[in-house]
Amino acid sequence: MTEANTTRVRLTTPHGDMVVEFFPDKAPNHVENFISLARKGFYDGTKFHRTIPGFMIQGGDPNTKEPEGMGNRWGTGGPGHSVNAEFNDVHHARGVLSMARSQDPNSAGSQFFVCHGDAGFLDGQYTAFGQLCEGDDVLEKIATAPCKPGGEGSAPVEPVEITKATVEEA
Question: What single string gives the DSSP state of each residue in 24-37?
Fold first, then answer.
């Protein structure tokens, strides 16, 4: 049994906590990467910088620790390494945790998203590696908060900070 089978990560936000459990049999490298980054405090102070009701909330960019407007770099940061795609048969349904990436399927690093609604069109194209086991109400609050006009309308007026990502034994 790998560490990931017994480990969860608690994402503490001002709206409450979301707790994630993992699929180490489906995406072992993504699971280990996420747990390792959480253990190092990488996610502490990052913000959910992209929210689309009915679709997803996205976070994990270290650039969001900087004030907004610092060269408009939110959404472009990472941990300095990438993880190769581990596409699998997990359906992108509400509460599923998956890795964000660029056009390159092997470009995932630290940015992740939590599905707020069914996103089956992402199946087989993005690496799903976990799911919420607590905090659906927090997901709802973050996903439905007002966004700024313009662009794709996904920049929250008040981005929600992950104050602490805590690795817990289940």
Answer: TTT-HHHHHHHHHH
What is the sign, positive or negative, of the torsion defined by CA atoms of 141, 142, 143, 148? Answer: positive
Q: Whole-angstrom Cα distance, residue 67 to residue 47?
A: 11
Q: What residue ranges in 100-163 does DSSP mark as E strands?
A: 112-115, 128-134, 160-161
What is this structure's pTM?
A: 0.93
Which token pair is 10?
A: 């608690």
Q: What are phi and psi of 13, to 5 degrees?
A: -130, 165
The first and second tokens of residue 122, run together, are: 């992402």
Determine contact, residues 54/117, Cβ cutoff 8 Å.
yes
Q: How many residues comprise the chain? A: 170
What's the CA gap between 55 and 104, in Å, rounded? 21
* Cβ-contact 51, 114 below 8 angstroms: no
Whole-number Å distance between alpha carbons of 68 and 76:
13
Q: What is the pLDDT along the chain (170 residues), one digit of tens a residue?
A: 345 567 999 999 999 999 999 999 999 999 999 999 999 999 999 999 999 999 999 999 999 988 766 557 787 788 999 999 999 999 999 999 999 999 999 999 999 999 999 999 999 999 999 999 999 999 999 999 998 887 777 889 899 999 999 999 86
Q: What angle do CA 150, 120, 90 make, to 5 degrees?
A: 125
